[in-house]
């Protein structure tokens, strides 16, 4: 067994045993928060990192998933598991329709559209008082339940978000390391050339937006049940910026990079908490220094480019799907 395998097994063991090793509710909450942001970052990375569609409204999908799940459980009496599926599917549909402007827009223009979409969704949450209760939010969201067992502590939530993260990594990894994923990267690098060689760029963009929104909807449903309360303040513009920063800092077009970026930007404010007056200043300084000296992010692009080249060398058939 080589050194890499030993390290991997050790990390898996520590991850599974974390609730029993930590025995601290606050630290466990931080780990759950890291899991939430890993899922959000992975979803946005598929849109921005792999497909090259600049999105600044990912928190809107997160909020849509949370509110749909909350309303499904509170108003319709559905269980968490049904609400989880419904919120993910409906959020994916919202992502599909938001992806329609991506057919004509690119770069900053698309960023402005997605930014506007995020603000529209937030204002709907604030002003549709008869449904969302406006700024008062929706309290008393039920916890997940398996048979007679109800999630009353943080430990079952930790294992649930861990399972969701593993499934998200597996699915997105399968997508991006397939012919479809190579098509996404081709669209990102040169959309005109991609279209010229037979890649259906419209399908690639819409699928990326819908898939990224799907995972954001899943995360939102989990968040709603975990916190047992949702309000418009939980899905602000700054949340979209934070998720985007995690993608860029970790490394665009990289699954390990998304995980590292989420971990660093969740832990950094906590580790700097003892510097109460200068915490956010140092947090911003870290981001600036990182972008100056390592613009590719923590997980550099060399390995990703090599893998893409090897897949391309193996042959890429025209995609008319």
Q: What does this protein look like?
A:
By secondary structure, the chain is mostly helical. The chain has a single domain (20-313), classed as ABC transporter involved in vitamin B12 uptake, BtuC (Orthogonal Bundle). Helices cover 73% and strands 2% of the residues. The chain is built from 14 helices and four strands. It has helices at 3-22, 25-50, 58-74, 80-99, 107-127, 129-132, 154-176, 179-189, 191-196, 201-227, 237-250, 255-271, 279-293, 302-313, and strands spanning 138-139, 145-146, 149-150, 229-230. The protein has a two-stranded antiparallel sheet with strand order 1-4. Strands 2-3 form a two-stranded antiparallel sheet. A hairpin with a 2-residue loop joins strand 2 and strand 3. Helix 2 packs across helix 11 (237-250). The longest helix is centred in the middle third of the chain and has 27 residues, at 201-227. The chain is globular and about 55 Å long. The N and C termini lie far apart (42 Å). 42% of the residues are buried. The model is unreliable at 315-321 (pLDDT under 50).
CATH architecture: Orthogonal Bundle
Structural domain count: 1
| CATH topology assignment | ABC transporter involved in vitamin B12 uptake, BtuC
Largest pleated sheet: 2 strands, antiparallel
Fraction in beta strands: under 5%
Number of helices: 14
Question: Structural class of the secondary structure composition?
Answer: mainly alpha
Unreliable residue runs:
315-321
Question: Reading side by side through the largest sheet, how are the strands ordered?
Answer: 1-4
Shape field: globular
Average pLDDT for all residues: 83
CATH class: Mainly Alpha
